[in-house]
Amino acid sequence: MSTRSEATAQTRERLLDEALTLFSQRGYAATGIRDILRAVGVTQPTLYHHFADKAALLQTLIERHYGESHQRLAETIAEEATVVGKLLAFVISTFEHCCVDPRVPRLMFQTYFGPTVPEIDGVLDKLTEKRFRLVVSIMVDGLRTGELSASNAEFLALSFCSMVDQPLNLFSRKTRPKRYLTRELAEAIVHLFLTGAAVRI
């Protein structure tokens, strides 16, 4: 790669990196193009050389990071033979991905629960649906093998995802999320999901 090509690639990555920081901190709607330009130290034509607009920056970030996360989840789960192993692997892998760069889950939650971004309508839904379907497939396997009690696989998946995503949303905002998003917490979530919290009489 030539020096010019390397510089161009580095500028593109710096634009993505600063956009990730700003979007995850302020939200997409509250971040302006000028904020990103100022953070990177480039001109508007430079940004538009790499991305059509602010929405294209957001879409690139979401597709990149969600794609990486989904691939890792699918590979990790495929290595496990039991539903318990698959669920635990799902949570641990999700926590680890968050801890590598906490800006990523912050961006996802900011985007998903913040104001609608019409320019990328459907992109985030499509990617989160892939993740949800991965969990549904675990529940279907569990119902088929008898590891889970008879129920609706989608309801089970929704319940499980809610149990995972709430602490993810909460602790990804901490200064050191790795202190909180531990294997012990992952095991506790899976145990609670599988056994419930009621006292057995």
List the helices and strands and how they pair.
Elements: H1 3-26, H2 33-40, H3 44-50, H4 54-78, H5 83-100, H6 103-113, H7 123-145, H8 153-171, H9 183-195
Question: What would the CATH topology of the domain at 59-195 be?
Answer: Tetracycline Repressor, domain 2
H/E topology pattern: HHHHHHHHH
Percentage of helical residues? over 70%
Highest CATH level, the class of the domain at 59-195 = Mainly Alpha
Beta fraction: under 5%
In whole angstroms, the N-to-C terminal distance is: 69 Å
- What is the CATH homologous superfamily assignment of the domain at 59-195? Tetracycline Repressor, domain 2
Report the mean per-residue pLDDT as an integer. Answer: 91
Uncertain spans, ≥5 residues at pLDDT below 50? Answer: none
Question: Care to describe what's here?
Answer:
The protein has 201 residues and is mainly alpha-helical. The protein has a domain at 59-195: Tetracycline Repressor, domain 2. It contains 9 helices and no strands. It has helices spanning 3-26, 33-40, 44-50, 54-78, 83-100, 103-113, 123-145, 153-171, 183-195. Helix 1 crosses helix 6 (103-113), helix 4 (54-78) runs antiparallel to helix 5 (83-100) and helix 5 (83-100) runs antiparallel to helix 7 (123-145). The longest helix has 25 residues, at 54-78. The model has no long low-confidence stretch (mean pLDDT 91).
